Amino acid sequence: MSLVRVLALVPLALVLPVHAADLYRFQVTVNGQTTRFGFQTTQETVDAFSNNELSHYVPGYTGAESVDIALDYRGLQIQSTFPNAFGGSANYTELRFTIPSLGIDQRFTGTDRDNSADRLLDYLKSSDLLGLINRRLVAVSPFDPIAGNPNSMMSQMVANDFAAGMMDPGGRGAAAQGGKEASPNLIGLGLRLGQFHQADVDSKSVTLPLSYTIRSDIDPRRQLVINLPVSRTEVQGAASYYTGLGLAYRLPMNDNWTLTPSGNYAVTGSKDLGSMAQMASFSLTSTYVFELPGMDLTIGNMAGYYKTLKLSYDDYSYDPGIANTVLRNGIMLSSPLTLFGKAMSIEYSAIDTRFTGSELYMRNYQELGVTLGTNRSASSARSFLRAGASYLFSSKSKGFTVNVGYWF
After folding, report:
1. Considering the domain boundaries, does residue 322 fall inside one?
2. Dihedral, CA of residue 60, residue 62, residue 65 and residue 70, to nearest 10
3. Full domain range(s) for residue 281
């Protein structure tokens, strides 16, 4: 948010080149002389501009020449100008600030150009512009932390909800097992690594999908799952963080059919990318298992609603107003095998995810996966071990995840 200082202070214009991987790109024109440069994070940009003035880099600059800045803010185009005092303009301190895609065209006239930039800051605090900017970024940015790509907060929430209903060990053993032997609760520890490529930029994530499963003594297939995922994503050296708290309840309707409602709250923040948001969700997953000769075929269908909430931070308060209904459907083929003398199972999965509602950079993607693990058909088992990998693809992104999980 303090990045707007660049609108009044334009240093380094003659010494920093633009690289294809820069996340923030500037084109600066001072009295007809155009220079391009860029940065990887908002903090780098603020550090570069806060203590330097244009006169340090442009000999003869007096603070009255015309300045025209075109800023590519992670895919969002922002423009600003100061007029030339020597061209007869009486208001050479006037800052014109425009975001064409949002229909924003505002003018701020202060006692000097720094004061004009301060007035723009005041405008950000008192208007809903920050919410509008964040809403637009999820539609145009390939690596926004909130939504619109596989490593974003919304996409990770969707994946976690679906996993709670279909992918994580749940067990579908006969209900008659219940009551004979107490089924222990399970602590889940894991590690998931993801790397995706979109718009010539790679994003990498490391996630710890922590969980605690409470199993009913009456029917061990009835399970309350508490999820606490923690994740870190990096894009060209810019880091963002995500964590959440979720509840899911696995409710068997019969020996083959299970319904899993889930409710979640999550928050993401990135000083490097100048973004922060919180989100709540509710979803329902239906899982049905068809018993085939020598294997099981599982069909999973999930529908969920994901919405950002109003957020206040320092003097700023905004709500991006992002709300999406998400459909995630998959099939999984499971086959038993013996490995190193132990009963195991191998699972092949195909998943399709589609977003409706708020405009997103990526509205659908598909995944193909394979997982090897202990037999999870035993609902009262005291531990599970699973490891696997998946390949994700769409018209805008390609990448993979590898994961390992242990429940004990």
Report:
1. yes
2. 90
3. 144-407
| Distant-in-sequence, close-in-space partners of 265: CB < 8 Å, separation ≥ 6 | 244, 245, 246, 278, 279, 280, 281
Contact 375, 335 (CB under 8 A): no
Q: pLDDT per residue over 138-187, tens digit each?
A: 999 999 999 999 999 999 999 999 999 887 766 554 333 344 455 689 99
Q: Averaging pLDDT over each range in 116-130, 287-301, 305-319, 375-389, which range is the top one?
A: 287-301
Phi, psi of 384 (to 5 degrees): -140, 145
In which band, very low, low, confident or very high, does the pLDDT at 21 lie, cut at 50, 70 and 90?
low
Q: Strand locations in 40-132, DSSP E?
A: 67-73, 76-82, 94-99, 104-109
Tell me the H-state helices in 143-248: 153-162
Q: What is the pLDDT of residue 9?
A: 36
Predicted model pTM: 0.86
Same domain membership, residue 164 and residue 57: no
| Structure-block tokens of residue 276 | 């922060």
For 6, which DSSP code? Answer: G
For residue 109, which of 100, 122, 96, 123 has the smallest C-alpha distance? 96
Pairing state between β 24-30 and 311-313: unpaired
State whether 120 and 162 are in the same domain.
Answer: no
Q: Do residue 148 and residue 122 come from a single domain?
A: no
Query: Measured on CA atoms in the order 32, 35, 40, 44, is the torsion positive or negative?
Result: negative
Q: How confident is the model at residue 3 (pLDDT cuts 50, 70, 90)?
A: very low
| 135 backbone dihedrals φ, ψ, rounded to 5° | -65, -40
Q: Residues of 111-123 as b/e, b for ≥16 C-beta within 10 angstroms?
A: eebeebbbbbbee
